[in-house]
Predict the 3D structure of the following.
Amino acid sequence: MNIADVVSGRVQLKSLQRLLLSPPARRVLADRLRALLPEGASLGPRHLREVRFKPGRQLTAYRDVRVRVGASERYRVRPIAVTWESNADADRHEETVDLAQMQDEAVRRGVAAPFLQLMLDFPEGCMQIRVSPLDARFPQLVRLSDPQHVRALLADVFASGDRAADQSRVSEYTVTFIKYRPGKRHVLRYDPVGPGKGKAVFAKLYIGEEGGRAYRREDGARAFRVAREVADWLAERGQGVNCLRPLAYVAEDAVVLYPRVGGVPLSDYARRPHRDVARWLQQAGAALCTLHHLPVEFAGRPEPHDFAAEIGAIAQKSLYIPVLLPQVGPAIKALFDRARELHEQLPQEAPTFTHGDMKAEHIWVAAGGITVMDFDSSRLADPALDVGYFLADWQFRQAAYDQAGVDERYKSFLAGYAPGAPKERLLRARLYEAVELVKCAVRRTQLFDQDWASHVVGLVGRAQVLMDDLQRTLGLPARPLSHPRSLNPGSAVKSRY
């Protein structure tokens, strides 16, 4: 297989999936991972979690690898990133120097084991392997993976406050990677070991500063500030709506620490029946309505994010779609063109505080009410964006379900949100929902899924149906979007607003 052809996009989807999934490709990866391990180490399953494809540039696969040394030892999970590139980056030499230093530090701290090395490059195959906790853009990741550093860090954080007594009895923490995305983002979980009553802590890293190179350190400070201000405001006026309050922002490590939240993510119930889902969705709608009344100065990014910017961001992320699905690319472009036209004909309102990433996984339900988390993307924007994205997310999670049942869930959410919302906002939310369904198709479906193509086609088809329905509601001249034969959205989507 010619890797350059795969990365360039000159081959079909099946060739790309063979590179990720075929037995020969898996054997090659296993052999190369063994080169990083001591003699006698065993490799277990290598679970593929996420794939990102940028035609003409690179293909990256994120995997969880199980590894152990010795038959008596249990398998441990280590995240890795495997990248195939068409051309080496211009700053690869500088990155290699940084990574070599980080690798030495990881070995010195004992967080590289059982791996002897955490990086391997194969220029002849345009391939590189990176093993956690290696990342040149996050130099603090190595020390934040070191249990000794974590213990000292959390001891300082909990030196005073309600949890001081419990956490002071914790002598050790285990470190687990929740997300390892080199160059992008990392989330770690710290679990206390021993008889103490300490609770798990989550660490969300932001790009730091090393060797005089300054990155976006302010992102962490901003995320911490927004979450604290929102939590305080909701504590006074939230009426059963809570915000996950961060424990601390540690500037030296460019990390925000969060406590473990009680309850269950609402997303867990998207694909299984539960008698209380309708009530929780109604509470989620009411919670979102409350968020849209937050002071606008709380927004993490003061510059407004408008409809054109949202479409532009999604279009940028969808550039690989026409390469792999030539019949779908024009359909997405036509949908975006029509969406812009419709948006210009809808009444507008001043931007408000918005969550910016309102997915069901960011809403947790418990006996004490709803808890909303992850305000990193909060900004000034049309509140219809949050409504539309939540509904698109819910439909994405229930894509295989009976549409009538999905519609009933929508009604529950809107029953909680709509009493405090202008009718014109709900019209724009329908437009946003169609656009955000495309976002789900291009960002959240996984290329290694054998049914990836049909999932993308189905979601784009549903977005087209929503656009047609909105057009009819507005009484505009009939101008339905063209549906290529391969785009079969299924049954019509009734108006839910």
User: Anything to note?
Assistant: The first helix runs from residue 3 to 8. Residues 264-473 form a domain with the Aminoglycoside 3'-phosphotransferase; Chain: A, domain 2 fold (CATH 3.90.1200.10). The chain has three domains: 3-134, 142-259, 264-473.
